[in-house]
Amino acid sequence: MLNDNGFFAYFEIMVKRFRILVAFGFVTAMLFIKTSPANAIDFRSDRHAKYKSNEIPVFDTVPPPDVMAVVSVAIKAVNTFDIRAVADLYTPNAVIVDNEPPYSWNGPTAGVQWINAVEKLCQFSSITKLKGVIDPVNVYQVSADDCYIVVPVHFTYVLPGKQGFSDQGAFAFALRWVNGKWLIKSQVWMPQKAMDGDRPN
Fold first, then answer.
1. Which partner for 167 in 44, 155, 174, 183 could form a disulfide, CB atoms 3.0-4.6 Å apart?
2. H or E element at residue 64
3. Quick count: other Cβ atoms within 10 Å of Cβ 189?
4. Which of 138, 147, 173 is nearest to 56 (CA)?
5. Residue 21: which region, alpha, beta or left (left: phi > 0; alpha: psi -120 to 50)?
6. What CA dihedral angle connects 150, 154, 160 and 161, to 10 degrees?
7. What distance in Å separates the CA atoms of residue 194 and residue 122, rounded to the nearest whole number?
8. What does each of the 201 residues of the chain score in pLDDT, given as a tens digit?
9. Does domain 9-41+53-195 have CATH number 3.10.450.50?
10. Residue 127 Cα to chain centre, angstroms
11. CA 109 to chain CA centroid, nearest Å
């Protein structure tokens, strides 16, 4: 999530590996979501509506509030390194991919492991005032049991003796409806630099 050539040069070594992991995460998310926009059903009218296996509603408006509530908690937990906030947000087989070592975390405690890794990186690099702000979402698909959503995020932070830095990108989330609530099945961070197709020097 944090990319600065002066302090994170070792990330460039992992760019190729990271891009492979990112691609894997996106493919994984898309594999379990079957789309048929022409036959879409309005998910918002009835949470327990019956869906055929090849049907999924697709909207171009505001994502469902209950989905946004979950992903917002996950992202904002980074601001305070709040592991309790993410302790129950992930499925038993969840996977998170990000660009701080060890680059991926698995299982129901994936969120806790990820937050801990971000905090360690900040401590190691003397980063302070890390803050993630969610930008407007316009890419998502949702059915009764599955959701795929891309959440643009703008991170800011401060390094010792330096002016503030910023980093933009997006998290791609895949969620499952489990026992009456949304849980995160996969979470992949894509930096703006990677999305723009930039290459390391």
1. 155
2. none
3. 23
4. 147
5. alpha
6. 140
7. 21
8. 655 544 344 434 444 454 555 455 554 444 444 433 333 333 333 343 334 444 555 444 578 999 999 999 999 999 999 999 999 999 999 999 998 899 999 999 999 999 999 999 999 989 999 999 999 998 999 999 999 999 999 999 998 877 778 889 999 999 999 999 999 999 999 998 755 554 444
9. yes
10. 21
11. 15
Beta-carbon count within 10 A of 191 CB: 22
d(CA 193, CA 108): 30
Nearest 5°: CA angle at 187, between 75 and 73? 25
- Distance between alpha carbon 170 and the CA centroid of its chain, in Å? 7
Give the C-alpha separation, 93 to 168, whole Å.
28
What is the 8-class DSSP label of residue 144? S
What would the two tokens of residue 183 be? 């849980």
